[in-house]
């Protein structure tokens, strides 16, 4: 697996890179970004995964996430994958909607025939890309954590719930917590996985918790001015599931904040500090 | 003068707005951004002006500048104007080059007939927009400062040198310090102001200092991996002029950094703290 460097810029004492590679999972070229903080030669660093939301690429958080100062201070690598396969040969939404297909992979391995070849974002994010990162950057694979925004918050929570031994921390901004119960999620899970709702449960954080998945704790921030809150995000469903399961959830309602990177960047440092504590040992 | 709100997002405890208005100077609509930090009702806040570089709009620093956390902490308003008039009716570079015309106003009032109607960025940035800001935001006009990047560093330094009583601090990232002596500047000053080089001197920081303009001190950062350093920026010319004039210049050569917002965002907090000290009294 060879990496092509798209750009490499010194920033906050470290290096912000953007890379491309031919993915075996998606059968397409995939682009991602990696920030490597200043570190001593030979050190192996903890790595934080950031999964992005609908319509995003690696670039949104890389440009607007305001994570580098804190990652540099705390010695964290941050990896930001793309949100779907890309390319003219990749099938998308028939109506070119923003919430399915390109830019909307939902972090699942599709089983529906039309999408199954390329839409393998679950395996890409949990298997292929971690191996590529481990082989090319100074990471300590024993110290990984994951966070994300909206669809990427869904991705981060489901990935963490399914790999409790791999990710030492998980958190999210404005996550979709119960895709089986909300319009964005129903469209995506039906489209990628078909109509059998049993297959949806391992891609639904609330269902995973109901089915016994556990994490020691979770941090979730959302803005009370988020236009998607009541219909698509529904944090109260996660709260209820965590209460029943005995999972310690720190759920923060941030007054006046919306769904944008202006919100994410405000609380990014908080999340990274929360991760760093759990990655320190 | 009425303002149209394009967007308003809560961020870092304050409000990041983007606004549009019909400019009397440029005879076009002009867009700019304003960050207002959290503050007590009725307070009048110091205001920092940020002038952007070639090809930029208000959006580059607004999205990538990483200034909001520090502005919120220090109680600074930050205003980011556009870099030129815009619109189909505005004349640009005949060859559509990036370094003249749209996105490249160079912060001068053009005198060449073709450009004189719209290209009035000097008056826009020093007169019209300050009045508009003072009338619509909680600013203390007695506490203003200015900084900028590249072409905007040129703008910030020349504006400050010509208004030593108005701006309490001036600094720059990778500024063009002697436009009369470098390709970007010669093209722009000739195009906007004509061939009489005497008219160029008040839009050339080094010439202004040679002609007697003074500031108590200046902060300038540049990256030693900046591809424009030797040909276009030439910080040594500013250093020499400041030495001869007795201006205290803190000129920092940042190893490994380039000309991008990855560089700017790294040192933004430093600059804002430097400004805040001088705006405090």
Describe the structure.
2 copies of one chain form a homodimer. Chain A is an alpha/beta fold. Chain A has a single domain (4-279), classed as Rossmann fold (3-Layer(aba) Sandwich). Chain A is 35% helix and 25% strand. Chain A has helices spanning 58-64, 68-74, 113-116, 121-136, 151-162, 183-193, 205-210, 229-233, 235-245, 261-279; strands at 4-11, 14-22, 29-36, 45-51, 77-81, 139-149, 167-173, 217-223, 248-254. In chain A, strands 1-2-3-5-4-6-7-8-9 form a 9-stranded mixed beta sheet, with helices on both faces. In chain A, helix 2 (68-74) packs parallel to helix 10. Chain A is globular. The model of chain A has no long low-confidence stretch (mean pLDDT 97). At the A-B interface, strand 1 and helix 10 of A face strand 1 and helix 10 of B.
The DSSP helix count of chain A reads 10
The CATH top-level class label of chain A? Alpha Beta
Mean pLDDT over all positions of chain A: 97
Uncertain residue ranges of chain A? none
**What's the structural domain tally of chain A?**
1
Assembly type of the chains comes to homodimer
Percentage of residues in strands of chain A: 15-25%
In what order do the strands lie side by side in the largest sheet of chain A? Answer: 1-2-3-5-4-6-7-8-9
C-alpha geometry of chain A: globular
Q: Specify which chain pair forms the largest interface.
A: A-B, 23 and 23 residues
- The CATH fourth-level homologous superfamily of chain A: Alpha/Beta hydrolase fold, catalytic domain
Please trace the helix and strand order of chain A, writing H or E for each element: EEEEHHEHHEHEHHEHHEH
